[in-house]
Amino acid sequence: MWPLHGQVRNYAWGSSTAIPELLGQDPTGEPQAEYWLGAHPIAPSEIDGAPLDRLLREHPEWVGKRCLRTFGHRYPVLMKLLAADKPLSLQAHPDRAQAEEGFAREEAAGLPLNSPERIYKDDWPKPEVLIALTEFDGLCGFREPAATVELFRRLGLAKELDSVLKPLSQRKGSAALAQVFLDILSLEDDAIVTTTVQAARAHVDDPYEVGEMARTAVTLDANFPHHPSILAALLLNHVHLEPGEAMYLPPRTLHSYLAGVGVEVMASSDNVLRGGLTNKHIDVDELIRVVDFAPSEYEPVERTMVDGFQRYLTPAAEFTVWCGELNHDRVTLPATKACRIVLATDGEAELRSSTETLNLGVGDAALVPYGEEVSAAGSATLFVTAPGT
Fold first, then answer.
1. Rama region for 356: left / alpha / beta (φ>0; ψ in -120 to 50; rest)
2. Catalytic residues, which ones?
3. What total number of domains does the chain contain?
4. What phi and psi, each to the nearest 5 degrees, are found at residue 85?
5. For the whole model, what pTM was predicted?
6. I need a surface site. Which of 4, 69, 268, 326 has the fewest CB within 10 A?
7. How far apart are CA 106 and CA 122, in angstroms?
8. Residue at a domain's end among 218, 234, 250
9. Is residue 291 one of the residues assigned to a domain?
10. Strand arrangement, sheet containing 340-346
């Protein structure tokens, strides 16, 4: 096992303090949004100064035959610390078939990978799970149309939004939501957004769903003034997580993170289709083709305790993730038959194999190769992730 050093990614929506505090570093004054731990070629982690993507190609025995058979030489897991101080853009990620087709299409068209119009940077899907370290708020999937109409009615906007929301009452399910979403993205007059936000301000102290919707509208307007896609965001389920709770985002799910700090684990892909709350390129036709507009209710990720570690039960083939709260008793890290990344988010931990010992403090990470049995003791909270095969 080896100490693993990730890379910080600076995006405008990030916190200037949360990730430096977790890493034990001084803030730079810049918004540090993510800290990447993995072998993604855009920002690979390093061991002794060597990039992890290169090291895993040179040492396939670290990865394991099963993972190599399933995923080839692309290590499938990417773990991140994520700190959102401001809302992210509305976005979705393709499933595997869509990613393979879209990547091949853009490659054949000769579209450069760094083009602002490029969507498919690779041919991989990007399921992901966000595990909250602090209270965390996000948007995930489309709310039932009737429930959305009722919430706007309780904000006092039934008449004002009738021209936009009428399909939610006249049509059913995904067809209605797709039509309304497309109509919203086509709006040229921001007066209806201004009216919505003004009405929402009178309800920010309301309890339950009405208050949540009102607060979301006001927050989004503060960051994206009068942006039509605020209305699109209000079609989605609001999700609030307490520390330790998790939100799973399957491919094709429209979503956004609003605020909070968490550990994000995903397939190692950079495919993002933006759907609003952004000034970046939005390919509406591709978005409509990829996004799942079927209404859904948010379901929290179930967890099961195995040998001192909680396993988060997601259907993703590319990754598995566990969390363990050490209490000084020695426990064995899960998944000895896969290459693992281990991250300490608080406290201290001693990792021990048959030949060596490695100490982790807050924000420290390690790579544990295939087949190496490692135990841990101490006071840390440890996140462990590995390929899902």
1. beta
2. 274
3. 2
4. -95, -25
5. 0.95
6. 69
7. 10
8. 234
9. no
10. 2-4, 365-368, 340-346, 381-386, 320-325, 309-312, 303-306
Quickly state the pLDDT bin for 328 (edges 50, 70, 90): confident
Mean pLDDT, residues 284-288 taken together: 92
Find where tokens 């990447």 sit.
36
Tokens standing for 29? 């004054």
Closest by Cα among 286, 169, 164, 175 to 234: 164
pLDDT at position 153: 94
Examine the pLDDT at 330 and tell me if it is beyond 90: yes
Q: d(Cα 92, Cα 141) in Å, to the nearest integer?
A: 10
Domain residue limits at 364? 1-7+45-77+302-389
187 inside domain: yes
Judge whether 82 and 32 are in contact, CB under 8 Å: no
pLDDT by residue (tens digit) across 350-375?
Answer: 999 999 999 999 999 999 999 999 99
Instruction: Give which of 386, 100, 136, 55 is closest to 269, Cα–Cα.
Output: 100
Radius of gyration over alpha carbons of the chain, in Å?
22
Pairing state between β 273-276 and 340-346: unpaired
Considering only CA atoms, which of 279, 273, 240 is closest in space to residue 259?
A: 240
Residue 389 above 70 pLDDT? no
Residue after which a domain boundary falls, among 176, 203, 234: 234
Alpha helix ranges (H) inside 32-95: 52-58, 60-63, 65-71
CA-to-CA dists, residue 161 to 81, 114, 165, 201, angstroms: 39, 39, 6, 16
176 domain residue, yes or no:
yes
Instruction: Tell me the C-alpha distance between 374 and 356, whole Å.
Output: 9
At residue 335, does pLDDT exceed 70? yes
Q: What is the CB neighbour count within 10 angstroms for residue 370?
A: 22
Buried b / exposed e across 66-89, counting CB within 10 Å, b at 16+? Answer: ebbeebeebbbbbbbbbbbbbbbb
Q: What residue type is 32 in one-letter code? A: Q
pLDDT (tens digit, 9 = 90+) per residue, 62-121?
999 999 999 998 999 999 999 999 999 999 999 999 999 999 999 999 999 888 889 999
Q: Residue 111: inside a domain, yes or no?
A: no
